[in-house]
């Protein structure tokens, strides 16, 4: 409102100043035109009648105009000269015309004069104070119009201020409530029948707050589910450890069972350790606090070394790991993070693989991939198993932390629910992409694409 009124006042002042100058100039021009018209009236009269006409015009003094006829020999009609300064008659005699503003006896006069036929001249004058009075009346009317305009501007400013500030105050209150932890404000406001604002910009703010409300509610819901999942995952090994610890403390465990109980405690402790490690790794990935150190390497060698490291675990499960890599695949990336990524995918595949099945790992360049990208540079890693596979919904939610864990808990072997989420974040930091699908034999298929030699370096600079 203040801005609107300020602009209106500035516009009114500027308009008043300009209008005053224009009005004064127009008024002076109109007065001079009237004086010239009076001279033309006298000039149009017969020479013998001009003196009588001039005396009549000077006596009537319409609009305060005085007329003087100058005849040969310098005789004036009326003889008093109508108060016209002698300098005006001198200039008229010398130049044949006069148009000026002169001051005589404390008065300012507008003087117009011209020589007419018969060696006569006519001079018409008007007191400039009359012009000023007319200007003053016009300025007063202009001031009234400007004042009315300012009042209208103030009224419109107040209306607009209220119209804008009401939804803005409501938006500010909603933001404070969101900061205080309240959710579902949009639904509550619609249920209460609050009207939507008609101001587009304010409506955008309210829509943004509504989106934030929905996003916060969804995020906090996922966090709540994740915490429930964590509590369940931790409680199971802790219950086993506590039970055996109580039995050992009470001396209820026979000597022969100690090795078995020890192995169980080691396994459960390993589960807790792995779960804690995954949580810490996920926290680091989400905090984005670790550096990517790319270097030229052969991606095949990294994948082969990872497969060799997991081969003992695979043999214990009676699962074979096959690596298919027809040629070296050079890339520039972080070997430690790639190894971490492949380890996570192999662990996930071995968990889902039934006895006697095969886990296949294929490493190719992007140009030689089953779905090639001729314009691209980089490499592709696919890891597939012969387990129960993924549904269409699973492929969409595969990389959301804990979703598949909660979906299949109790129905199939599941891990901590964090492995695929960690893999997705690792791939993103490496500048690549990861997708989930269904293998030809029905198992799960995960495809990773990493940028090439130059792309990897450029991505690392962007990431940093």
UniProtKB/TrEMBL annotation:
Give the EC number(s) listed in the UniProt record: 2.7.13.3
Q: Which GO terms describe its molecular function?
A: kinase activity
According to the record, the residues making up region (Disordered) are 368-389
Location relative to the cell? Cell membrane
Instruction: Give the catalytic activity.
Output: ATP + protein L-histidine = ADP + protein N-phospho-L-histidine
Provide the top EC class.
transferase
Q: Indicate whether Nucleotide-binding appears among the record's keywords.
A: no
Which membrane topology describes this protein? Multi-pass membrane protein
Q: Which residues form the Histidine kinase domain?
A: 229-454
Kindly give the InterPro entries that the UniProt entry links to this protein. 2C_sensor_his_kinase, HATPase_C_sf, HATPase_dom, His_kinase_dom, HisK_dim/P_dom, HisK_dim/P_sf, Sig_transdc_His_kin-like_C
- Cite the entry's keywords alphabetically: Cell membrane, Kinase, Membrane, Phosphoprotein, Transferase, Transmembrane, Transmembrane helix, Two-component regulatory system, Virulence
Q: What is its main location?
A: membrane
Enumerate the transmembrane spans. 142-164
Q: Which SMART domains match?
A: HATPase_c, HisKA
Domain of life according to the entry: Bacteria
Q: Tell me what this protein is called.
A: histidine kinase
């Amino acid at each position: 409102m203040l801005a609107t009124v300020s602009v209106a006042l500035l516009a009114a002042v500027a308009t008043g100043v300009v209008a005053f100058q224009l009005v004064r100039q127009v008024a002076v021009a109109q007065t001079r035109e009237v004086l010239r018209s009076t001279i033309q009236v006298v000039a149009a009269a017969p020479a013998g009648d001009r003196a009588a006409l001039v005396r009549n015009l000077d006596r009537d003094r319409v609009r305060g105009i005085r007329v003087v006829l100058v005849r040969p020999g310098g005789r004036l009609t009326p003889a008093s000269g109508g108060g016209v300064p002698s300098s005006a008659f001198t200039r008229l005699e010398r130049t044949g015309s006069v148009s000026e503003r002169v001051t005589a006896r404390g008065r300012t006069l507008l003087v117009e004069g011209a020589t007419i036929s018969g060696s006569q001249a006519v001079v018409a004058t008007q007191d400039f104070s009359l012009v000023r009075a007319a200007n003053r009346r016009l300025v007063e009317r202009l001031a009234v119009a400007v004042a009315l305009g300012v009042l209208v501007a103030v009224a419109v400013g107040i209306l607009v201020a209220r119209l804008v500030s009401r939804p803005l105050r409501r938006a500010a209150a909603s933001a404070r409530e969101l900061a205080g932890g309240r959710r579902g404000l949009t639904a509550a406001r619609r249920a209460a029948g609050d009207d939507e604002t008609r101001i587009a910009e304010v409506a955008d703010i309210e829509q943004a707050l509504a989106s934030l409300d929905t996003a916060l509610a969804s995020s906090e819901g996922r966090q709540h589910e994740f915490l429930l999942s964590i509590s369940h995952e931790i409680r199971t090994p802790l219950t086993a450890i506590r039970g055996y610890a109580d039995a050992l403390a009470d001396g209820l465990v026979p000597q022969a069972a100690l090795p078995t109980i020890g192995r169980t405690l080691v396994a459960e402790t390993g589960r807790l350790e792995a779960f804690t490690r995954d949580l810490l790794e996920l926290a680091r990935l989400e905090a984005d606090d670790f550096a990517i150190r790319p270097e030229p390497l052969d991606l095949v060698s990294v994948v082969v070394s990872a497969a060799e490291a997991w081969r003992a675990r695979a043999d214990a499960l009676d699962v074979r790991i096959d690596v298919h890599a027809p040629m070296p695949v050079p890339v520039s990336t972080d070997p430690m993070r790639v190894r971490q990524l492949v380890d996570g995918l192999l662990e996930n595949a071995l968990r889902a693989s039934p006895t006697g099945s095969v886990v296949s790992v294929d490493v190719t360049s992007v140009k030689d991939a089953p779905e090639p990208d001729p314009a691209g540079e980089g490499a592709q890693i696919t890891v597939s198993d012969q387990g129960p596979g993924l549904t269409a919904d699973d492929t969409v939610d595969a990389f959301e932390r804990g979703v598949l864990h909660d979906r299949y808990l109790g129905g199939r072997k599941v891990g901590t629910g964090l492995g695929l989420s960690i893999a997705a974040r690792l791939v993103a930091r490496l500048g690549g992409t990861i997708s989930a699908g269904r293998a030809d034999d029905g198992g799960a298929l995960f495809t990773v694409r990493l940028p090439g030699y130059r792309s990897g370096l450029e991505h690392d600079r962007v990431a940093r």
